[in-house]
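FORM 12-B: Structure-to-Sequence Request
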């Protein structure tokens, strides 16, 4: 009979480091979902203002071990905010006016407002990407995660 050595901190073949990374990632995303609730009734600017201090701390903590994850998290957060804006605009007319105000071409704006897709799916559409660019989010007060991690 062979002696078996049982290692502490191992669960199901995964190391504790990978488990803690996914735990931190899930808890961070859960908090971002709370701060960016689609039906919170606050403006996008205020929502970003409440989100940035949390993201700064999270990026600072998370960047030490998982810096390669930051760009995908940054994109996920921007997509989440596009989804919030789409839901807040509520009606087709309001959505069309807001997209046109953001210099989205008429064809893209029309395609977006007459789409049968849901808010999360549309947050990845061309119209919302043209309306809410990285530069626009920067003007609204949301810096890129790489800059937050370095601050």
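FORM 12-B RESPONSE
SEQUENCE OUT:
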């Amino acid at each position: 009979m062979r002696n078996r050595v049982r290692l502490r901190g191992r669960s199901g073949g995964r190391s504790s480091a990978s488990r803690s990374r996914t735990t931190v990632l899930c808890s961070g995303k859960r908090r971002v979902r709370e701060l960016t609730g689609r039906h919170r009734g606050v403006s996008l600017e205020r929502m970003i203002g409440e989100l940035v201090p949390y993201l700064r701390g999270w990026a600072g903590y998370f960047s030490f071990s998982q810096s390669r994850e930051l760009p995908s998290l940054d994109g996920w957060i921007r997509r989440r905010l596009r989804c919030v804006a789409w839901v807040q605009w509520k009606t087709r007319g309001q959505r069309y006016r807001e997209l046109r105000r953001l210099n989205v071409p008429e064809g893209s704006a029309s395609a977006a407002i007459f789409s049968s897709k849901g808010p999360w799916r549309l947050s990845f559409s061309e119209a919302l990407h043209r309306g809410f660019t990285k530069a626009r989010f920067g003007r609204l007060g949301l810096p890129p995660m790489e800059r937050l991690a370095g601050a």
